[in-house]
Design goal:
The complex is a heterodimer. By secondary structure, chain A is of the alpha+beta class. Chain A has 24 helices and 24 strands. In chain A, a hairpin with a 5-residue loop joins strand 4 and strand 5. Chain A is rod-shaped, with a radius of gyration of 57 Å. By secondary structure, chain B is α/β, with parallel strands linked by helices. Chain B has a single domain, classed as Rossmann fold (3-Layer(aba) Sandwich), CATH 3.40.50.300. Chain B has a six-stranded mixed β-sheet. Chain B is globular. The chains are: A alpha+beta, B alpha/beta. The interface between A and B is medium-sized, with 26 and 28 residues.
Chain lengths: 600, 173
């Protein structure tokens, strides 16, 4: 530390005063003996103004501010200590004589033996520092206000959020309480909400569906998904889909109502309704009007359905009798698929128009080389139908030799392939059909009586369509639906006049002819409904009979005329002529022979 | 006449200067001008029929820029802790300053005031905290320098406590 001489003084008094003036400072020296503070040099103007002109060169502590008095008491240790040590009072504010204030700061220091007190008026440096602190504090206060505003907004939002959550919880509780099944889809088709009942109905849990695209998450079948997609994308007001089948441990049927979320038009609210019970009831009703592929709800058909069910329960041979086109093969199929053999093959064959050897080979098979062209061993239809059902259509047309072989199969449950000697065991149920009156054939000697008794253990007799006209609308609508689905045409219904024509027609070709007529009409139809003009000409031109009248079978002469006309219209093409008449080719050929018509 | 040094302590912008000015000059300004250093004011009050001159040391607010010097507290007969009800942080500052003051001047009387009662709805200092302070031996008053509420009561209450704890009249600088 630098040491100072005891007789330190500025020799140039004017320079000393100039320094004091420049520093805007007043300097006192503390006298040891009196403890008074004596003014050194010339004081600045502000000091003179502050203490007043009456005050001399000694600092009057009684007139000093409490702050300075307090400081001077505390500054003693500085003056008693080492030379060169200083202590600042820190700033304080005093009123000046002009009604303002001034900020002062005192410094105690000792230089050598001299104890000095410096009082300076803080100027622009202090004001700058004050301004900086002021700005900093203003900024802190502003930030505090901002932070408070944010906290307030956050609190408000949290309150709103809580209220919203409560509302949501209440709505959800209500939704669950009402057991309402609902889903919400966002703009991308992702499921954002699923009610408990909705999940239960779909057989899913929340984690399987929330956030997933509905098409992947919901267990609908492919074609049903397309329907739903169409409704979501469409702007139609009818936004109901279903009932749709849902597979699973508890299969069900649901109907969907798809609503646009009124708050966000891109979102969809899907309300699900369980239609399983309704569907079951509808199906039960529908089953009364149909059975397997059979359609009709006339008393005759209802009796037939029951008979088929009864026959299916036993394993006996069945004879199905009915005119051509009445659906004998459909009955055979219904028997098979209602029976315990339904998992095994159902094989149908038409026995009409086949020679002995071809039919025998077809039914029982043959050994290689057993006849010309038998290049391989070949199993017959009995073997192919093993465990299942063999449907022999037009059994009345079987040649006598085949009748004998067939009788043996039915009795012994075994067949022998052509060219083989060893019989083979078969387990086949035979369902036969004929349009003949086999009893008459037996009398005429063209059909074996023992075979008749063997195949006629159970009998199903099918009524011609003309005897169950009430089934015509149902059948026609059913065929219309099937054909439209197959062709992709969108025809909704039959015009009442067209239906009236259908109801009036004789339908010698029975249901097959009706189906053929509807196919014709669908091809011709250009509107949403089938008009009379769309129907085949033979139906349009036929005289309309009163609905209450009883259909009278046409005599063979008329039928012959119809066959001839059909052949003529088809320019001799027998397949086309058969189609126009609504009969099979086999029946067509048989009837040509029976009606003594030369196809040429 | 009895003179008592009283220090005004608290965080910045809590209203120390405003309380002093309201008490001494009955004026108030919404404009905030920060105090740097010390301003000393005087005002006499009557306590038990005795005139007591309160020498009010309005110290700068404590924050990260300025720390209160212990030397300023020296010789205080009591002190007032000022808080801003709308800023919870000023409570923490007041608690810290009380500990500083207790170390510097010992167990002299002190009174605390939560200022800005005119905006009570915006207060962040809640009743639970206030109750805890009172349970800790603090005298907690509510006031508003802006409205003049509780200001006179504040100084008189401290003066009374000071007088009661110093029965022998003596001048204190």
């Amino acid at each position: 530390m630098k040491s100072w001489p005891d007789n330190l003084a500025l020799h140039n008094e004017s320079l000393f005063n100039a320094v004091l003036s420049t520093l805007d400072m007043v300097v006192f020296e503390r006298e040891e003996d009196s403890a008074e503070f004596r003014l050194q040099g010339l004081p600045p103007d502000w000091w003179c103004m502050w203490v007043g002109p009456a005050n001399g060169t000694v600092l009057d502590l009684g007139q000093c501010s409490p702050f300075l008095r307090d400081y001077l008491v505390g500054a003693h240790p500085i003056w008693g200590g080492q030379s060169g040590v200083t202590e600042k009072s820190g700033p304080w504010t005093e009123p000046d004589r002009q009604g303002g204030t001034m900020t002062l700061e005192a410094t105690a220091l000792s230089i050598g033996s001299k104890k000095l007190l410096l009082i300076e008026r803080l100027g622009s440096g202090f004001e700058q520092m004050h301004a900086i602190v002021q700005r900093a504090r203003d900024k802190m206060l502003a930030e505090d206000v901002t932070a408070k505003s944010h906290r307030k907004a956050e609190t408000s939002l949290m309150g709103q959020l809580e209220a919203s959550e409560r509302t949501k919880d209440d709505a959800l509780a209500l939704l669950q309480h009402l057991r309402l099944a609902a889903l919400v889809l966002d703009e991308r088709g992702c499921i954002t909400f699923a009610s408990d009942r909705g999940l239960e109905m779909l057989g899913l849990v929340a984690k399987q569906v929330i956030g997933q695209v509905w098409e992947q998450a919901l267990p609908f079948q492919r074609q049903d998904r397309s329907m739903i997609r169409e409704v979501i994308d469409a702007s139609s007001t009818d936004r109901t889909v279903g009932p749709l089948y849902i597979e699973g441990p508890h299969p069900s049927w649901v109907e969907l109502e798809i609503h646009r979320d009124p708050r966000h038009l891109g979102r969809q609210i899907v309300v699900l309704s369980d239609r399983t019970e309704l569907h079951t009831l509808r199906q039960a009703l529908s089953e009364q009007a149909s059975f397997h592929d059979l359609v009709g709800k006339s008393p005759t058909m209802l009796r037939t359905y029951q008979l088929v069910r009864d026959v299916a329960q036993v394993d006996t041979t069945v004879l199905i009798e009915g005119e051509t086109g009445t659906g004998k093969e459909l009955i055979a199929r219904a028997i098979h698929f209602s029976s315990a053999r339904k998992q095994k093959p159902f094989i149908a064959t038409n026995c009409a128009g086949l020679t002995d050897s071809i039919l025998t080979s077809q039914l029982f098979g043959h050994k290689r080389g057993s006849f010309t062209g038998a290049v391989n061993d070949q199993q017959g239809l009995f073997e192919a139908a093993e465990g299942g059902t063999l449907f022999l259509d037009e059994i009345g047309d079987i040649p006598p030799q085949v009748q004998t072989a067939l009788l043996r199969v039915l009795q012994e449950k075994e067949i022998t392939r052509l060219g083989e000697a060893k019989p083979r065991k078969v387990d086949v149920r035979v369902v036969a059909a004929t349009h003949h009156n086999l009893s008459e054939d037996v009398v005429r000697g063209s059909f074996r009586a023992d075979l008749l008794y063997r195949i006629r253990i159970a009998r199903v007799q099918l009524s011609p369509l003309r005897e169950r006209r009430e089934d015509i609308p149902l059948l026609a609508q059913s065929f219309l639906g099937q054909i439209c689905t197959a062709t992709g045409k969108r025809i909704e219904r039959l015009n009442p006049d067209a239906l009236r024509l259908l109801m009036s027609h004789a339908w010698p070709g029975n249901v097959r002819e009706l189906k053929s007529a509807i196919e014709f009409a669908v091809i011709s139809c250009k509107a949403k409904e089938v008009l009379p003009i769309d129907l085949p000409p033979e139906i349009i031109s036929a005289p309309v009979i009163p609905s209450s009248s009883v259909w009278i079978p046409l005599p063979n002469r008329d039928e012959k005329s119809r066959f001839l006309a059909a052949l003529s219209d088809a320019k001799g093409n027998r397949t086309e002529a058969a189609r126009r008449l609504g009969v099979s080719r086999a029946t067509f050929y048989r009837r040509l022979v029976e009606l003594d018509i030369d196809p040429r | 006449m009895m003179q008592k040094k009283i220090c005004m302590l608290g965080g910045f912008a809590v209203g120390k200067t405003s309380l002093v000015r309201r008490f001494v000059s009955n004026v108030f300004s919404d404009h905030y001008r920060t105090t740097i250093g010390v301003t000393v004011e005087k005002k006499s009050v009557k306590v038990d029929d005795r005139d007591v001159t309160l020498v009010l040391w309005d110290l700068y607010g404590e924050d990260e820029f300025q720390r209160v010097r212990d030397s300023y507290l020296r010789g205080s007969a009591g002190y007032i802790l000022v808080m801003d009800g709308t800023r919870k942080a000023t409570l923490d500052t007041a608690i810290a300053l009380q500990q500083t003051a207790a170390k510097a001047v010992g167990a002299v009387p002190f009174v605390s005031i939560i200022n800005k009662a005119d905006v009570r709805s915006e207060w962040e200092i809640d009743e639970g905290v206030i109750e805890q302070l009172r349970e800790g031996g603090w005298t907690v008053l509510f006031g508003s320098a802006k409205l003049g509420q509780g200001v006179e009561e504040l100084f008189v209450k401290l003066a009374t406590q000071i007088v009661q704890t110093s029965p022998i009249p003596s001048d204190s600088l």
